[in-house]
């Protein structure tokens, strides 16, 4: 499987402007920064499935994909949706839209991985590759690398 592309992650909160430190925790930008730290934490937990040993039993792998991976991607979508209520600069609102796209692509990949493992097939490999490339593009776009 294309696990190498799937594992690539990013720490988006590092791309948030430094002026947030000036505003403090109670401001919308301060809240945004804290929520981005939560985002990164949940992203890491969702991606932990790729750290499981290769000989992990199928039932455990499927459970980790569904109950941990997909769960945390859905939680990150909710987190991004809640950020829409904050008074943020347009650049951050646009970044949030891309983050939501990123999470939704991750959900698609995790669902395909689940089906692939459950059905013991590589039939979904091209779709997974396509979504992985989209994710790489978004990561590049957000981080400027």
Task: Explain the overall architecture.
The protein is mostly helical and 145 residues long. It is elongated, with a radius of gyration of 16 Å. The protein has one domain (3-143). It has helices spanning 3-7, 20-23, 28-47, 58-83, 90-119, 125-143.
Give the class from helix and strand content and strand pairing.
mainly alpha
Number of domains: 1
How do the SSEs run, as a string of H and E? HHHHHH
What does the overall shape look like?
Answer: elongated
Oligomer: single chain
The residue-averaged pLDDT reads 87
Counting DSSP H or I runs of 4 or more residues, the number of helices is 6
- Characterize the biggest β-sheet: none
Number of distinct beta strands: 0
Gyration radius from CA atoms, angstroms: 16 Å
> How much helix is in the residues?
over 70%
Unreliable spans are: 1-7, 10-14
Q: How far is the first residue's CA from the last residue's CA?
A: 25 Å
Strand content: under 5%
Question: How is this fold's topology laid out?
Answer:
Layout: H1 3-7, H2 20-23, H3 28-47, H4 58-83, H5 90-119, H6 125-143
Question: Top keywords for this entry?
Answer:
mainly alpha, 145 residues
């Amino acid at each position: 499987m294309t696990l190498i592309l799937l594992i690539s992650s990013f720490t988006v909160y590092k791309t948030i402007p430094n002026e947030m430190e000036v505003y403090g925790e109670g401001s919308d930008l301060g809240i945004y920064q804290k929520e981005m730290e939560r985002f990164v934490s949940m992203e890491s937990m969702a991606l932990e499935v790729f750290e499981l040993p290769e000989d992990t039993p199928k039932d455990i792998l499927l459970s980790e994909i569904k109950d941990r991976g997909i769960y945390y991607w859905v939680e990150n979508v909710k987190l991004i949706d809640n950020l829409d209520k904050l008074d943020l600069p347009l650049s951050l609102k646009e970044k949030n839209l891309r983050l939501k796209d990123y999470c939704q692509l991750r959900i698609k990949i995790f669902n395909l991985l689940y089906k692939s493992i459950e059905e013991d097939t590589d039939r979904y490999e091209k779709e997974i590759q396509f979504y992985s490339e989209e994710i790489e593009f978004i990561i590049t776009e957000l981080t400027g690398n």
